[in-house]
Amino acid sequence: MKRIPILFFLFVFLVDASGQGYVSLGYQIGSFSSGLKNLRNEVYYLNHVTYPNFSEKFEMSNFNHGVEIEFGYFDNKWYYFGNWNNKHLVISGSGKNQNNQDTEFSVKVRHNNFVTFAVGRKLKPWLGVAFAPANLGTLKVLKKSNDNPETDKWTDFYPNVTRGVLSQYTTLGGSLYVDVFLKRLRLRGSYSFDYFRHEINVGPSYAYPQNSVNFGAAFIIGGR
């Protein structure tokens, strides 16, 4: 594990020395634009059936946030990149459970997404647009409760989800980007979308689409 930071900083040094390659580290905030209707159903069920006596109720949210790590290359007016990014949201409630015990319960929607390849065009030195046609990821719905002996671990909210390389967690989509370059700072607006419905094996048409609108900022290393 100690080798990973060393290799990362070595790669950053080589990228910076090459002149055109770059690495960027950023953070983004946004919203699942599809609305996550099935999560809204779960929030209602938690508040009225599972934990009706909670003093701190669960509040529905589509807000997400997370980090972004990108590797890319500038070539005159074109630029190319791939990145890994994370979007997640957490909703929580607490109070007395049906056994009159103090309980805390949380639900997390987490989307880890790998942008395999994106191509961008600089319309102006400070403005670019880009498209990524093939993003692979995993979108999980998780839970954590102090009713569970393993309280520090997130577990599957839906126990029937299939696992494996191409499980029901797997997502396939694309992204559109608008980038503003301010020296070493890049501001980005993005829209990510599903090519297929992301269904979870708990009932007919029970889906959690990854569609999301996000805004972020990143620090660029290299790419002179």
Write a brief structural summary.
This protein has helices spanning 3-18, 37-50, and strands spanning 21-32, 54-56, 63-75, 78-96, 102-124, 127-145, 155-156, 170-182, 185-194, 212-222.
Structure, explained:
- The chain is mainly beta and about 220 residues long.
- About 15% of the residues lie in helices and about 55% in strands.
- It has two helices and ten strands; from the N terminus they run H-E-H-E-E-E-E-E-E-E-E-E.
- The protein has helices at about 5-20, 35-50; strands at about 20-30, 55, 65-75, 80-95, 100-125, 125-145, 155, 170-180, 185-195, 210-220.
- The chain has an eight-stranded antiparallel barrel with strand order 1-3-4-5-6-8-9-10.
- Strand 3 (about 65-75) and strand 4 (about 80-95) form a beta hairpin.
- The model is unreliable at about 5-10 and about 15 (pLDDT under 50).
Defining key terms:
single chain, 224 residues, mainly beta, 2 helices, 56% strand
Secondary structure layout plus pairing:
Blueprint lengths: L2 H16 L2 E12 L4 H14 L3 E3 L6 E13 L2 E19 L5 E23 L2 E19 L9 E2 L13 E13 L2 E10 L17 E11 L2
Antiparallel strand pairs: 1-3, 1-10, 2-4, 3-4, 4-5, 5-6, 6-7, 6-8, 8-9, 9-10
Helical stretch tally: 2
- Stretches where pLDDT is under 50 for at least 5 consecutive residues are 6-11, 13-17
Helix-and-strand structural type: mainly beta
The spatial strand order of the largest sheet comes to 1-3-4-5-6-8-9-10
